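thread from #wetlab-drylab

HS: before we spend reagent money on co-crystallization trials with NAP, can we at least see a predicted complex? here's what I'd submit
DV: go for it
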Amino acid sequence: MKEKVAVIGTGRMGSAAAERLTGLGYEVILWNRTREKAEELAQRINARVAATPFEAVQEAKYGLLFLSDEDAIYGVLSGFHRMDGAVIVNHATITPQASKRYEGFVKALGGCYVEAPVLGGPSAVKSGKALFVAAGERMCLNTARPVLEDLAGELVVLGEDTAKAAGLKLAFNSLLIGTIELLAESTVLAESYGVDPETFKDVLSRTVFAAAAEKYIPRMRRDPGEPASFTLRMAMKDLEYALRAGYPFDIPQPATAGTHAMYRTASRIGYANSDYTRVYHAIKGKRD
Ligand SMILES: NC(=O)c1ccc[n+]([C@@H]2O[C@H](COP(=O)([O-])OP(=O)(O)OC[C@H]3O[C@@H](n4cnc5c(N)ncnc54)[C@H](OP(=O)(O)O)[C@@H]3O)[C@@H](O)[C@H]2O)c1
């Protein structure tokens, strides 16, 4: 058996990571706010559940955070005490500003902090095909590297500044979610003039938009009641963080702001827990 790893947060991404790690022979210790979810997962993948996140990290000396947002991370970290030699790796999507705050907090407790956001969903993580980017102090990165390399399909190391990894991830998500929104909007426009979405996809597949159209037009049209792999609520959070990350530099982000407004509307009318691509149904519903 390989070393112990604590997985904090057993939602979509955390449970996929925990499953991959146990499959690779790691001893995994789980913690989740809703304990029953961690227990159900622990039984399925042969892991253990800790009573608190600090207990999990103290025992493993290696804690992977797969929590939803900055408030959740702050809540978990604020229960931590001295943890000399422990490595905390954050995989959630957060602002560069929060990343620097968490790094300072963990360092003050004697631990190491690495920012390692994921470009890819739960199924890519489970199958070891997800792209991870990572940044952190050299010593921290070196300690985290073996587990990160096992977890990721590909790992891009960005150096010592954790803000870089968090910033790159937000830049990627504003591009991805903005693309989805625009693809949904343009599909509904084409449909309004009698163009079948399949025909629209077929035409786009002969252009520079081929990859996005082939992957996302079928996905966005599926039932909003199907289980989400990335929720619309989480996409809205990422857009908000991307806007916030741009404020210190006064970057005009009208496209991201517009996408955020559409996601907020979709969330308000009942799509918050649907897959983020189902913004298509929200746009279509507004038209009808
Ligand atoms: N899903 C994706 O495709 C994807 C891809 C890349 C990055 N990400 C990022 O990865 C992170 C996790 O996403 P996910 O899709 O796994 O979300 P998720 O399925 O909704 O899981 C969220 C996790 O956070 C926990 N949590 C929420 N609020 C909390 C709080 N106040 N205190 C403690 N724990 C709390 C939840 O616990 P409960 O079970 O108790 O609710 C759950 O374990 C997010 O930052 C997301 O942006 C997601």
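DV: Residues 19 and 45 are 6 Å apart (CA to CA).
HS: ok that's useful, forwarding to the group
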